[in-house]
Amino acid sequence: MASPSSIQQHRARYKARCDWAAFTVCQAIRGASAFSEFQDYFSGQMDASTTEVRNFIPSREKADGTINRTNSARRNMEVFSLDPDASVSSEQVGEIWFTFNLLANYIFNKNLQASSVADKFIPWVEMATMAYPYNPYMSLFLSIAYSLIGQADRSREYLKHCTTHCDSPYWHDRFSAWGLDSLANEMHNGGRQIAQLLAQTRSNLSPALQIPQEAR
Protein backbone atom coordinates (compact mmCIF):
# COMPACT_ATOMS: atom_id res chain seq x y z
CA MET A 1 0.00 0.00 0.00
CA ALA A 2 0.94 3.62 -0.45
CA SER A 3 0.14 4.10 3.23
CA PRO A 4 -0.27 7.44 5.00
CA SER A 5 2.43 6.35 7.46
CA SER A 6 5.01 6.05 4.67
CA ILE A 7 4.37 9.66 3.66
CA GLN A 8 4.52 10.78 7.28
CA GLN A 9 7.78 8.92 7.82
CA HIS A 10 9.21 10.56 4.73
CA ARG A 11 8.33 14.01 6.05
CA ALA A 12 9.66 13.10 9.50
CA ARG A 13 13.07 12.54 7.95
CA TYR A 14 13.36 16.25 7.22
CA LYS A 15 12.47 17.21 10.77
CA ALA A 16 15.07 14.78 12.11
CA ARG A 17 17.81 16.56 10.12
CA CYS A 18 19.80 13.34 9.73
CA ASP A 19 22.75 13.02 7.37
CA TRP A 20 21.22 10.16 5.39
CA ALA A 21 18.00 8.17 5.28
CA ALA A 22 17.54 4.59 4.10
CA PHE A 23 14.24 3.78 2.43
CA THR A 24 13.52 0.09 2.00
CA VAL A 25 10.41 -2.01 1.65
CA CYS A 26 10.41 -5.39 3.34
CA GLN A 27 7.90 -7.91 2.05
CA ALA A 28 7.52 -10.78 4.50
CA ILE A 29 7.29 -14.44 3.49
CA ARG A 30 5.72 -17.38 5.17
CA GLY A 31 8.26 -19.55 6.92
CA ALA A 32 10.90 -16.84 7.30
CA SER A 33 12.36 -16.24 10.75
CA ALA A 34 10.63 -12.88 10.89
CA PHE A 35 7.30 -14.63 11.32
CA SER A 36 8.34 -16.64 14.35
CA GLU A 37 9.89 -13.56 15.92
CA PHE A 38 7.12 -11.11 15.04
CA GLN A 39 4.11 -13.35 14.50
CA ASP A 40 1.51 -10.85 15.64
CA TYR A 41 2.95 -8.08 13.50
CA PHE A 42 3.02 -10.22 10.38
CA SER A 43 -0.21 -12.14 10.99
CA GLY A 44 -1.95 -10.40 8.10
CA GLN A 45 0.78 -11.27 5.64
CA MET A 46 0.95 -14.91 6.77
CA ASP A 47 -2.30 -15.62 4.93
CA ALA A 48 -0.85 -14.35 1.66
CA SER A 49 0.40 -16.67 -1.06
CA THR A 50 3.78 -15.01 -1.50
CA THR A 51 6.80 -17.31 -1.36
CA GLU A 52 9.77 -14.99 -1.13
CA VAL A 53 11.02 -11.98 0.79
CA ARG A 54 13.69 -9.41 0.14
CA ASN A 55 14.69 -5.90 0.98
CA PHE A 56 13.37 -3.72 -1.79
CA ILE A 57 15.99 -1.27 -3.05
CA PRO A 58 15.10 -0.83 -6.72
CA SER A 59 18.23 0.98 -7.89
CA ARG A 60 20.30 -2.12 -7.11
CA GLU A 61 18.79 -3.87 -10.11
CA LYS A 62 20.83 -1.80 -12.60
CA ALA A 63 24.19 -0.06 -12.28
CA ASP A 64 22.81 3.13 -13.86
CA GLY A 65 20.08 3.46 -11.23
CA THR A 66 17.15 3.25 -13.67
CA ILE A 67 14.10 1.52 -12.25
CA ASN A 68 10.99 2.21 -14.30
CA ARG A 69 9.68 -0.81 -16.18
CA THR A 70 6.26 0.31 -17.42
CA ASN A 71 4.37 3.50 -18.12
CA SER A 72 1.52 2.63 -15.74
CA ALA A 73 3.22 3.73 -12.50
CA ARG A 74 2.97 7.30 -11.26
CA ARG A 75 6.37 8.93 -11.31
CA ASN A 76 8.26 11.71 -9.57
CA MET A 77 5.98 14.12 -7.64
CA GLU A 78 2.92 12.19 -8.80
CA VAL A 79 3.62 9.55 -6.14
CA PHE A 80 2.29 11.97 -3.51
CA SER A 81 -1.13 11.89 -5.19
CA LEU A 82 -1.55 8.13 -4.78
CA ASP A 83 -4.55 6.89 -2.83
CA PRO A 84 -3.12 5.96 0.60
CA ASP A 85 -5.46 2.98 0.80
CA ALA A 86 -4.73 1.60 -2.65
CA SER A 87 -2.62 -1.48 -3.23
CA VAL A 88 0.22 -0.71 -5.61
CA SER A 89 2.41 -2.70 -7.96
CA SER A 90 6.09 -3.41 -7.41
CA GLU A 91 6.82 -0.90 -10.17
CA GLN A 92 4.90 1.75 -8.25
CA VAL A 93 6.75 0.92 -5.04
CA GLY A 94 9.96 1.43 -6.99
CA GLU A 95 8.81 4.88 -8.04
CA ILE A 96 7.94 5.78 -4.45
CA TRP A 97 11.39 4.64 -3.35
CA PHE A 98 13.09 6.63 -6.12
CA THR A 99 11.25 9.81 -5.17
CA PHE A 100 11.85 9.49 -1.44
CA ASN A 101 15.54 8.72 -1.90
CA LEU A 102 16.25 11.52 -4.38
CA LEU A 103 14.44 14.12 -2.31
CA ALA A 104 15.71 13.19 1.14
CA ASN A 105 19.29 12.19 0.40
CA TYR A 106 20.20 14.51 -2.45
CA ILE A 107 17.99 17.53 -3.13
CA PHE A 108 17.24 18.18 0.56
CA ASN A 109 20.43 16.75 2.03
CA LYS A 110 21.33 19.03 4.92
CA ASN A 111 25.04 18.78 4.17
CA LEU A 112 24.51 20.46 0.81
CA GLN A 113 22.85 23.47 2.39
CA ALA A 114 26.09 25.08 3.53
CA SER A 115 29.63 24.86 2.20
CA SER A 116 30.99 24.29 5.69
CA VAL A 117 29.47 20.80 5.86
CA ALA A 118 29.33 19.77 2.18
CA ASP A 119 32.44 17.65 2.67
CA LYS A 120 30.40 15.33 4.94
CA PHE A 121 28.26 14.40 1.94
CA ILE A 122 31.17 13.44 -0.31
CA PRO A 123 32.75 10.28 1.19
CA TRP A 124 29.42 8.54 1.70
CA VAL A 125 28.18 9.14 -1.85
CA GLU A 126 31.57 8.45 -3.41
CA MET A 127 31.52 5.07 -1.73
CA ALA A 128 28.01 4.46 -3.06
CA THR A 129 29.07 5.28 -6.62
CA MET A 130 31.27 2.19 -6.55
CA ALA A 131 28.04 0.20 -6.75
CA TYR A 132 26.34 2.64 -9.14
CA PRO A 133 29.10 3.99 -11.41
CA TYR A 134 26.70 5.11 -14.16
CA ASN A 135 24.14 6.93 -12.01
CA PRO A 136 24.12 10.55 -13.24
CA TYR A 137 22.34 12.26 -10.35
CA MET A 138 24.87 10.88 -7.88
CA SER A 139 27.62 12.39 -10.03
CA LEU A 140 25.74 15.68 -10.31
CA PHE A 141 25.38 16.09 -6.56
CA LEU A 142 29.00 15.13 -6.00
CA SER A 143 29.92 17.84 -8.51
CA ILE A 144 27.81 20.30 -6.54
CA ALA A 145 29.35 19.22 -3.23
CA TYR A 146 32.90 19.65 -4.49
CA SER A 147 31.97 23.03 -5.93
CA LEU A 148 30.60 24.13 -2.55
CA ILE A 149 33.91 23.35 -0.84
CA GLY A 150 35.97 24.98 -3.58
CA GLN A 151 37.45 21.90 -5.26
CA ALA A 152 36.81 22.88 -8.87
CA ASP A 153 38.79 20.10 -10.52
CA ARG A 154 36.93 17.32 -8.73
CA SER A 155 33.66 19.14 -9.38
CA ARG A 156 34.33 19.21 -13.12
CA GLU A 157 35.30 15.54 -13.08
CA TYR A 158 31.97 14.48 -11.61
CA LEU A 159 30.07 16.87 -13.85
CA LYS A 160 31.66 15.14 -16.83
CA HIS A 161 30.49 11.78 -15.48
CA CYS A 162 26.99 13.19 -15.08
CA THR A 163 26.90 14.54 -18.63
CA THR A 164 28.15 11.25 -20.06
CA HIS A 165 25.59 9.08 -18.30
CA CYS A 166 22.43 11.23 -18.37
CA ASP A 167 22.12 11.31 -22.17
CA SER A 168 19.02 9.16 -22.50
CA PRO A 169 15.25 9.81 -22.61
CA TYR A 170 14.89 8.18 -19.19
CA TRP A 171 17.32 10.53 -17.47
CA HIS A 172 16.19 13.57 -19.44
CA ASP A 173 12.72 12.99 -18.02
CA ARG A 174 14.02 12.51 -14.47
CA PHE A 175 16.28 15.55 -14.57
CA SER A 176 13.56 17.76 -16.01
CA ALA A 177 10.95 16.62 -13.47
CA TRP A 178 13.12 17.57 -10.49
CA GLY A 179 14.90 20.63 -11.87
CA LEU A 180 18.19 18.77 -12.02
CA ASP A 181 18.70 19.93 -15.59
CA SER A 182 18.85 23.53 -14.34
CA LEU A 183 21.37 22.53 -11.67
CA ALA A 184 23.51 20.75 -14.26
CA ASN A 185 23.36 23.77 -16.61
CA GLU A 186 24.49 26.06 -13.80
CA MET A 187 27.41 23.75 -13.06
CA HIS A 188 28.39 23.83 -16.74
CA ASN A 189 28.36 27.62 -16.49
CA GLY A 190 30.80 27.63 -13.60
CA GLY A 191 28.51 26.90 -10.66
CA ARG A 192 28.85 30.32 -9.05
CA GLN A 193 25.14 30.45 -8.26
CA ILE A 194 24.68 26.76 -7.48
CA ALA A 195 23.95 27.24 -3.77
CA GLN A 196 21.21 29.77 -4.55
CA LEU A 197 19.76 27.64 -7.34
CA LEU A 198 19.71 24.53 -5.17
CA ALA A 199 17.97 26.52 -2.44
CA GLN A 200 15.40 27.71 -4.98
CA THR A 201 14.81 24.14 -6.14
CA ARG A 202 14.10 23.13 -2.54
CA SER A 203 11.83 26.12 -2.06
CA ASN A 204 9.83 25.22 -5.17
CA LEU A 205 9.28 21.65 -3.97
CA SER A 206 8.73 22.30 -0.26
CA PRO A 207 5.06 23.43 -0.25
CA ALA A 208 3.86 20.25 -1.96
CA LEU A 209 5.96 18.11 0.37
CA GLN A 210 5.00 20.06 3.50
CA ILE A 211 8.63 20.38 4.49
CA PRO A 212 9.31 22.77 7.39
CA GLN A 213 11.26 25.94 6.67
CA GLU A 214 14.22 24.94 8.81
CA ALA A 215 14.79 21.80 6.72
CA ARG A 216 14.92 23.57 3.35
Shape: globular
Give the number of helices: 9
Low-confidence stretches: 1-5, 26-30, 34-56
Largest β sheet strand count, sense and barrel closure: 2 strands, antiparallel
Which range best describes the helical content: under 10%, 10-25%, 25-40%, 40-55%, 55-70% or over 70%?
A: 40-55%
Instruction: State the total count of DSSP E strands.
Output: 2
Order of helices and strands: HEHEHHHHHHH
| Gap between N and C termini | 28 Å
Query: Strand order across the biggest sheet?
Result: 1-2
Give the radius of gyration. 18 Å
Q: How much strand content do the residues show?
A: under 5%
Estimate the mean pLDDT confidence. 75
Provide a descriptive summary of the structure in words.
- The protein is mainly α and 216 residues long.
- It has one domain.
- Helices cover 50% and strands 2% of the residues.
- The chain contains nine helices and two strands; from the N terminus they run αβαβααααααα.
- It has a two-stranded antiparallel sheet.
- Helix 4 (121-129) packs antiparallel against helix 5, helix 5 (136-148) packs antiparallel against helix 6 (152-165) and helix 5 packs across helix 8.
- It is globular, with a radius of gyration of 18 Å.
- Mean pLDDT is 75; it is low at 1-5, 26-30 and 34-56.
Chart the SSEs and their pairings.
Layout: H1 4-16, E1 25-26, H2 33-37, E2 55-56, H3 90-107, H4 121-129, H5 136-148, H6 152-165, H7 169-178, H8 180-188, H9 194-209
Antiparallel strand pairs: 1-2
Helix pairs in contact: 4-5, 5-6, 5-8
